[in-house]
Design goal:
Blueprint lengths: L2 H17 L9 H23 L12 H5 L34
Helix pairs in contact: 1-2
Length: about 100
């Protein structure tokens, strides 16, 4: 139940409990309205508790093997093959060039 539904139930219960004249002896609208208001208040409280609930601290759940990957010390193994990352200029192919010159 979200906060808006809780507010709606509070308002609807208040209207039923205090805004409608109870002329029926079979159903006590005051009690029905108060029950609806209590349901709305409980829903708002649960919604607030869920929204402000703090999760577990992520630092205590890090696997030591995963944490080892992020150390500042170099790894034990050395890279044998170096990859050339020198930028080159882009040369588009003329295979699909359909423009006419002149």
């Amino acid at each position: 139940m979200r906060l808006g539904v809780g507010i709606f139930l509070l308002a609807a219960g208040g209207i039923i409990a205090f805004g409608i004249r109870d002329t029926s002896s079979r159903v006590n609208l005051t009690v029905v309205g108060i029950v609806i208001m209590l349901a709305g208040a409980a829903g708002m409280w649960v919604s607030y508790r869920i929204a402000t609930q703090s999760g577990p601290d992520d630092a205590e759940f890090i696997d030591p093997k995963v944490e080892e990957q992020y150390t500042l010390e170099p790894h034990e193994y050395q890279i044998d093959e170096h990859i050339d990352v020198t930028p080159t200029t882009y040369q588009p192919k003329d295979e699909h060039h359909h423009f006419k010159d002149g």
